[in-house]
Amino acid sequence: MSESNGGGQIAEELRTLVSEAEALLRSTANAGGAEFQDRAQATLQELRARLNALEETVRSLVAALLEALHTRLELAGVEVEIHLRALLRSLIWTLGAVACAMLGLAFAMLSVIAAFWSTHRMLALLGGTLVFIVLAALFGYLAARALRTHPDVLEGSLAQLAEDERRARGGP
Description:
By secondary structure, the chain is mostly helical.
């Protein structure tokens, strides 16, 4: 945005310059001959043409900048949506797997406790508790590792913006 303001300031300064040149031409109209006035008019027309060309260039640059920004924001939005859907899908499948595994282990523990009820019921209960504690620690470790190793949410957008910046600076 600051560059568009700088472009607007340049265009305004050029307009002021053209206005001052017109005022100078009018004030010196009587001092010079027809040849001088013709040359001054031609120069004035050339300045106006350059000013219009510069204004169009600035407008096209601002339009291109806004279009690029719009495209990058759309890309960022798509990336965020993809990551959210992948995260939701992973959470649903993980919760389902954990629930089924816990139910299976619970029924297995009940079977072991029922089998050892008359001889080693306390050992069976403590063994079942230990199995669930180890599984909880394992699932916690796997969840933390999965969260650490996922790619950044806007990695593609940031790479594209870096590429745009490199191109804008004229780099290879």
